[in-house]
From TrEMBL:
It comes from Pseudopithomyces chartarum. This is Piwi domain-containing protein. It holds the Pfam family Piwi. Transmembrane segments: none annotated. Residues 1079-1091 have a biased composition (Polar residues).
Amino acid sequence: MFHGTTQVSHKSALKVSSSSSASRPAKQVSFTLQDRVRYIRPGRGTWENGEPRARRPSEWELNNQQRLVDDTLAEIEKIERSELLERQTRRKPLPAESPVREGYFTQSNWSELQHNRTAKKKGANIMALSSVPIEWNAADHDFYYPTVLIDKPKAPSNLSPGHGRGWNKPDVLFNKDLMAKAKAKPPAKKGKAPTKLLKFPLRESLSVAGTPKPNHLTNHFEICATTQDIWEYEILDLDLEGRSKKRIQALFKKAMDEWPILKDNLQYIVADNRKTIVSWKKLHESFRPEEIVTSGTSPDMAGTIWQSPSISFGKIIVTTRFSLVRKLEIDPLIGKSQSDTKFIDQDTTATERCLNLLILKSLGNNVVQVSRKKFYIRAGRHGLCDKENRVSRSLEIMRGYYFCVKAGMGALLLNFNLATSAFFRPILVSEFLADNSTFQGDLARRNIVKKLLVYIDQDRKNTDLNVQKARVKQINGFSSKNIEELVFYKKKEGIDGEYIKNGDEYEYETKPTYVHEYLSDVFGQRVTPRRVAVNVGSKNNPVWYAQEHLRIIPYQIYTRSVPDHLTDSMVNQAACNPEESQHLIECEGLSQLGFTTTANNKASFPRGIPLELYPTMLRLESRRLNFPTVKYNMQTFTQSGWSLRDSEKFHHSPVKELKYFLITTRVGNFEAKAYVREFESQVRKRLSITAVTLLNTVETAAYGMNDQASTIESKLGDAKSKGAELVLLIIPSKDRAIYRSYKELADRKFGLQTICLTIKRDNLPKTPDQPSTNAMTKYMTNIAMKVNIKKGGVNSIVDGFIVKDTLILGADVVHPGSAALESCPSIASVVGSIDHSVTRYLGSMRLQQNDKDDHEIITSFQDMVAERIRDWMTYNKDKNIPKMPTKIIYFRDGVSEGQYEKVLSKEVAKIAIAWDDQLKKAKIFKKPGMKINILAVVGVKRHHTRFYPMKKEDKDTRGNNNCLPGTLVDTGVTSPYYRDLYLQSHSCIKGTARSTHYFVLRDGDVGIKFNELPEFIHKLCYTYCRSTTGVSYATPTYYADRLCERGRLYLYKTLNGAQAEELDIDKEKEIDRQRKNRNLTFRQNPDTNYNKSRDGQKSGAEVNQEQEDLATLDAFVKKRAMEYAEAEFFEHAMNLDGQPRTNGNPWTDEVGKQMFWM
């Protein structure tokens, strides 16, 4: 590498000679409109001295010829539109049922072409985007990026759902052996209590709640293996010496291409391109006995390791080993589906993972695989548009599918579902960094594009460097200076053209070279000045390129939340009604796996894969629960959604007057008065308040982020000093920055209850003297609900739903995204009920280390549960006599099946400990046998199971023809052993409804039998405090989720990596300290670094010390990240003596006495 603070890749950047374009000769014709079309579409020719030439223009040239683009837009549009129509006219229309319309231009193509013209007409300062390399249009290319897109196949209007494949209840379901095992009490070990033989409560019967409804399909397909001889292998040692993921994949591919044992058996194997190979042929029979390094102990040789051929990678020889991991055990997976007792505790995840890998072999190059369970249609792309229909230059969405093999109840199943995601478009890095319409702020765009893979877009003189693997790089940062200011020092070359080394170190020239001059010489084009350079090397050894030299490689998923102005477009494209969803899965999705017909007949997977599938959805038995009765002051409702009469009051309001403070930001007088008038009207009416007093109105016009925060802080201080009970903020449109400052300051510094109103044109009357619109009345009714909640009121109750002596808990954890500070902690929240009608909850919140193994487990759970018990006791005293809850029902949000046991042992067990502690602190006598009864249930929304009603009478016409609210499924797709169910409590008005999956972890004696649990949860979903509908999952977990989202406002800087530079400096100092200590220990001088030529192979002791130092460094970074996070999280937190604190909840005691986050 080059010496100095900056450098470029020396060998990869050589001057382009005139022969570099010889393979693409240009037509010598006069400059016509068609030439101008080629000119403004880089990659199709360029303009030089009045004649076209086969070289893509530089961005600098395009910028200087923008006038040419403007002058020809109208002519281009006319020609392209006529050509497009002519092409479509010549093509024969494809059948409507055809899932793929290859080669057919769609409206989405045309809207993509129109993007730049539309934006230009609206005055946007943009230019036409560059084209991807022509070779990417080839179907056999790794980055195949089709230019002709495929619209989402439309479901025929006369689509019949078919009969599906009927579910067969397994004969051994609820067998006597399982029942005996569930009730057995094993002998206790000495000094320990007896443990249960079963992990979780056993399913003893199917539900009898509600009304039978046997007519539902699910997106599951029965699947089976045709052979028991399936083997899992691994190539070992590829990940040694700190090799990158990219290098590991390259080595793996080389082994697949060169090793006879693999390349001669490609038709029998499938690989994950990292280390795992699954084969339905015994590959290990090709090894000789003397090649065995380690012998396996099992009869099938599992665990055996052989010495495999070395892999040559440039000048490096990599030695590897080949391991037989296991022979796949299919029988246990099948046995589980049949509820066989002997397989209940057997882990079958490895078998499921390998079967998923086998399915991937059926995919062709018309799809791209982004994970082991997801693939996307390459031509199934669509632009993301804002409300003015302007297409994002940086992001696009792709239609794809998710699949997973699992043991169902009675059969082995393939779960297959739609998956729509946002991806980065393959544009130049310069184009991405200039796109301020998708992402606001230069720094934000740089952070977003960091770590993406990019492609060196221009050819280089050294043809070895023009192969694909030499063009692919990763963005690791950006220069702090503009590119014209950067210099580097070249490596010295010997007479033989090789770089000169002094030991293990290269020698460098003493004269610096300007990066921009060097790159201009290398690529034969002027580098655009006044831009930062892109680093594709490391921080200590940077390798610089100009932004316009690098193109984002396609099919890299965008993992963050889509920007607000593009959310509607994302939702509209992703949402499919049940008929469309079913049609896409069965016609387009399954066709990618090789199944072109939908029938209840077994069919084989293609390419010899030893699996068979019934390509028709599974038909299940289901039940329908009745609507709960929701009661306000006078009105009652028994439906999924409702509207209040104009005169209707809320169920209970504890206040008779309200003093509020008004802040407006860039809102007109007419809008503010209209909103205030209706706000006061609805609050008086719904809460039965006799006096609503506006203490003061202040208007702020600050625009900068810092000005906004300081102005909001000042006005909140005024509100506090005037004794406001509520602060109302009116803003002209959604503004995250203002909202964040407003809420976090009110919660954590001033202890004020707040509401934020957004101006919506549909809400406003046409003139000031007109009455409020219906939209405004509904909007302010919802706002009045929030006011009542924040004042300790109850908006509605579920009639007859009383849970005495019972505390209901909900808990959730949210994790940092990819933009967060390294080792940024997670946010955990617990909420708990305080009344018998379970309508009022209070909450607790903590930061916790983001542990890789147990990142979903709440570490401060006992402390937060203790707070919830204390608050329950405060609100449930019996004539000032302390009273404890005797039953606790715990709902846990968002944990995967693999975490169930840990939630049980590390969270549910802590509930009993916290209860015992509070019992002692309250000085309540504990009678013999007295204990807390706990029911613990996990509720998960993020799953891929869907249900489709088959008959018209089973469809929810209010809910987009989804299943009716109250649909309950506990057969077929549920656990073959344990108590779980799917329940849809709400009307889904967009897309396909997603039922919540509930799994019982612990079934204590809380007075609710399993058959009664669905009804209990269903009622809970209708107690949500600020909605006139039932909600989609249990209200306590909904509240916990909302509280976690509030916590994100308190950790905004850390979650967006604001302290990254400081942490990097701290980290580098620690790395340097560790290195000097190792040098002192193993080379007797802290400044003498390891040199292989001088020191030889590192000793085992030094290698072990390096591993210990890595673990120490990880702990150091986590500790420092937590310190940064705590400083922000507890920024305004004070002890009673006025000193800063870093424990407990981040908000003030006053605000924490109500449901402030709602």
